[in-house]
Write a structure and sequence with these properties.
Mean pLDDT: 96
Distance between the termini: 45 Å
Order of helices and strands: HEHEEHEEHEHEEE
Length: 204
Amino acid sequence: MRNLFDPSALGWPQLQDSLHVYVLPGPEFADVVQPAVDVIAQFDFCVPVAPQWMHATVTRIPWWRTEVDDRALREFGRALDAMTIERTAFTIKMLGPTPHETSVGMEARSNTPWKRLLDDTRDAAVQIFGTGRVLPTPPTRPHVSLGYCVADADSQQLESALQPVDISIELAIDEVCFVAVHQDPSAGTFTWDLISSHRLPAEI
């Protein structure tokens, strides 16, 4: 595996206050994936993600909170409100754990509601924050990371230890959160401050 926090991997010019839109799993999700997290914790080159910091990235916005004014943050929040109120909550089935080059996580196939959520969120970001910077490529599929690689290492033993762990769980997409994300390479963590949250109405 490769160190995710190597500057060449993420390429964030600042470690604090990166603007993102996340979906946050509930406590049940963290409980179900705990067996995989326990395995990850046995390997010192991979840092397990604490339940409160688990997330599915909808999009990263190529601006930092310190670069934009509060008016733009509020306008984007209103755009997310207008977007989410027009749709209903949904779920996606996540399977795993799956090792990747820099992390281990649960992942799902993109479905139509997820693709609409992603596209509309990114469109709103361009509308509010402008086209001066190109939006980063979105995740190839919905995923929730359970561990981040913090050193280049042979991951064969980790992958073998994860093979008996077979998890399937529905991730509820009933709220999106606009957050300012902080990267800590020494700790191997991503944490955040909540800027605003936006509920999707329940299906009637």
